[in-house]
Structure formats: structure tokens, C-alpha cells
Amino acid sequence: MSHAQQHVLASAIVLALIVVFCIHVFLFPMYTSNPPARLIKISTYEQALCRTTLKNIRIPPEWRNPCPKYGIVSAVQGGRLGNQIWEYASVWATARRTGLEPFMPRCILKTLEEYFVNLSIPPLSYIGRCYLDVSQVVNSLGQWNSTEQNIIIPRHAAYWSLILVWLDDVRREFTFKPNLRAYAENVLREVAEEFELPEPTFVSVHVRRTDYVDYLWQKLKVRPAPVNYYITAMDYFIGKYRNVVFVVTSDNIVWCKYNLHSKRHRIKFVSDMDGRGPGKDLAVLSACNHSIIDYGTYGSFGAILAAGETVVYNVTTYFSTLIAEVLPNWRIMS
Length: 334
Ligand SMILES: *[C@@H]1O[C@H](CO)[C@@H](O)[C@H](O)[C@H]1NC(C)=O
Ligand SMILES: *[C@@H]1O[C@H](CO)[C@@H](O)[C@H](O)[C@H]1NC(C)=O
Ligand SMILES: *[C@@H]1O[C@H](CO)[C@@H](O)[C@H](O)[C@H]1NC(C)=O
Ligand SMILES: *[C@@H]1O[C@H](CO)[C@@H](O)[C@H](O)[C@H]1NC(C)=O
Fold this sequence. Notes:
Blueprint: H1 3-32, E1 39-41, H2 42-48, E2 72-75, H3 81-98, E3 101-102, H4 106-113, E4 116-117, E5 131-133, E6 137-138, E7 150-153, H5 160-163, H6 167-173, E8 175-176, H7 178-194, E9 201-207, H8 211-220, H9 227-240, E10 244-250, H10 253-259, E11 267-269, H11 278-287, E12 290-293, H12 297-306, E13 310-313, H13 319-326, E14 330-333
Helix pairs in contact: 3-4, 3-12, 7-11, 11-12
The structure holds 2-acetamido-2-deoxy-beta-D-glucopyranose (4 copies).
Residues 117-118, 175 line the site of one 2-acetamido-2-deoxy-beta-D-glucopyranose.
């Protein structure tokens, strides 16, 4: 080897070492650097996900579970019953898709357990003594890229496209308490008797008013569904099914009684005057054969549980309308 060749070889080796060094020092960290772990005790974290102050509980011995090996799925409490049902369902579906273990903050479970039995997701308190790394938290499946990461679903979220994949299982997950089922059956039996219908087709009408009217305007610059929408939707059902009776529920039943009268339709208004009893109304919605809803998490979920034909009000790109674009037995009307 000539002197010149030795020189080239030496230079090449030095250059190669420099490249390897640079890759290790500058490039690898871009892929491997983890933010420093910020651990928080899960019992503390659970409280942070809740609006209300949780009572201290004595953890029963059977809850001394092994800490999760990977990330978990949970949600932030937001909204009322309708929202919290979707938050729960979003956690359920996200866990199913990812294989991560789901846990719910106790406050959401408390809301739901008033109405449903045998919910499968355990409370976060179940692993309350374990630690969660808050530097490894993402909000949705879209951001999730490692099993170390926890998916904490934001308040008011409804990951409907994920949920629609397992509709039958979701319906089974939300089993009403026996007293609510009995209440709904009773309401429908009385309605059938009142109109003397031997084989009635029950079509629920859910009318969302009160705070939602403002919300629609503030958020979407959309006016509430006009009376004519509900009447058109009712006409659709009497044109298609026999012995149809409409069962109206609402957070403002007085508005409904005043506005939704029609000589052509059999209509029964069932909600309490004060808009309380959301579980009772939801049980009635889910016991009906078909559904008319306008918008909102509560009505949409009632229609999902009823599993019949559903008419929704056309609010462009709104989630109830998007669901209707996916499900074959849902249709959009204006
Ligand atoms: C809830 O689960 C318990 C125990 O598995 C079972 O006995 C009961 O029938 C279930 N209740 C309902 C309403 O499905
Ligand atoms: C994985 O997700 C985290 C958190 O969203 C993000 O910071 C990171 O860039 C992602 N990594 C890759 C390779 O996509
Ligand atoms: C309609 O709903 C009622 C009450 O839930 C039920 O008893 C009946 O079987 C349903 N009818 C049809 C055709 O599904
Ligand atoms: C819903 O409204 C949008 C915008 O006004 C319109 O383009 C669309 O055709 C409507 N869809 C139905 C099914 O009425």
C-alpha cells in the first residue's frame, strides 16, 4: 500500500467514525428520547379527572391488583348523563381496539351505575396505589404510538366511529337496571292501551331544548330544529309502519306539548315536567322500536340502544349527522 493510499484509508476511517458518532449523538436521541417520567399516584390522578370530590374509600383486598404493565385507557368527566355515557363508551371501545386495560374514574361510574348494571370497566381506584406517568399521556388513538402511553379521553369526547364497530356489544354493555326496564315497559303498555293499538309500532321522539339551543348557536351558528322537522319525521314513520304511536321525551316537555300537536299523529308525552329522571326517559327511548332525534349525545345514544330506524336532524358535520352517514338504518332530514 502506498503512502497516499494509507492516507486515504486513514481519512476514510476517521470520517466513518465521525459519522457514526454524529448519528449516535444527534440523530438517535430524536427517536429514543423520552420526556422525563412524571409519576403521579393513580388515586390522586382519579380525583383530577373528576368534577366532584371523591370520598376516600378503603380499598377492599380483592382490589389489590397488579399494576398495569402497559398504559391504560380512561376519561375526564364532563357533561351530564349523555356525555358521560359516550365518555364511558369511548374508553370501552378504545381499550378494545388497543388492548390496553380500561379504568373509569369513580365519578363517571357513579353517574352511570344509577341506571345501568354490570358495567364491565373497573374504577381507577382499583389500581389507586399504582403510579401513572403523566408525561406519557395522549388523548386519542390517533396520537397513540406506544403501549407505554396512556390514552386519557378528554371531557365531552365521543369517539363514535370506534364505537360503531361493536354496536351489539356496546348495547349489551349498557344494560338498564331492572326497575328502569320495568318502568319503560309499563309506559309503553299504557300508551298502547290508551290508543287501543293491538300491535303498536313505538317511535320515540327526543327533543333537546334548554341549554342546547344556546350551545348550538354559540358553537355552530345553528338554530334549533324547527317544529316542522319533527312533524316531517313523524310523517315518514306513519307512511312506512302500521299502528304508529309517538312517544315524546324532552328536557322541555312543556315546549313539546305546546308545539308538537298534530291531528294526524298519535302522540304521548312521557317526560316529567321538571326534566328530571334522565334514566327513565333513556330507558323509554331504548325500549321503542324506532327513533326520531334532533341532536345531542343523549338522544343519539337512546337511538343506538333502540337499534331501530332513526331519523336525525341535518346539522352539517355534527356528530349525530356523521353517525347517520355511516349507519344504514339512520337517515338525515331537515
Ligand atoms: C349481572 O351480573 C350478575 C353476575 O354475573 C348476574 O347474575 C346478573 O344476572 C347480571 N344482571 C343483569 C341484569 O344482567
Ligand atoms: C409518539 O407520540 C408522542 C406523543 O403524542 C409524540 O410526541 C411522538 O412524536 C410520537 N412519535 C412518533 C415516532 O410518532
Ligand atoms: C316494538 O317494541 C316493543 C316494546 O319494546 C316490543 O315488545 C316489540 O316486540 C317491538 N316490535 C318489533 C316489531 O320489534
Ligand atoms: C344537509 O345540509 C347540507 C347543507 O345545508 C346539504 O348540503 C345536504 O344535502 C343536507 N342533507 C340532507 C340529507 O338533507
